[in-house]
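User: Hello! I'm new to structural biology and keep hearing that structure can be predicted from sequence alone. Could you demonstrate with Biphenyl 2,3-dioxygenase, ferredoxin component? Please show me the input and the output so I can see what each looks like.

Assistant: Of course. The first part below is the input, the amino acid sequence of Biphenyl 2,3-dioxygenase, ferredoxin component. The second part is the output, the predicted structure written as tokens.
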Amino acid sequence: MSSYVKVCTLAELEEDTPKRVELGDTPVSVVRTEGEVFAVYDICSHANVSLSEGEVEDCQIECWLHGSRFDLRTGKPSGLPATRPVPVYPVKIDGDDVLVSLTQES
Ligand code: FES
């Protein structure tokens, strides 16, 4: 069973500017882009770097350290040096509230 937790409001999310939130002990990067909101695990799969400090483009979030880009829909890296995906989490919008569940979609 998944449980959704409110992490912020839509108004707090600037387009293409990741917002780091904590769900319990789990850091999550919440991104509003292309009319949708996505949530991915905030730590790069290559090293201990916060993805929310990177840039968003073409529905991908870029790790600022070595430049791997992760698809916000699937968590998969599109290029080296990262080879493993980051977890992605389902998002629900309820009015102005953004809710995230730590239950992974895949
Ligand atoms: S730490 Fe993210 S690509 Fe190296």
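User: So the tokens describe the shape?

Assistant: Right, they're a compact way of writing down the 3D structure. Reading them back into a model, for example: The first strand starts at residue 4 and ends at 9.
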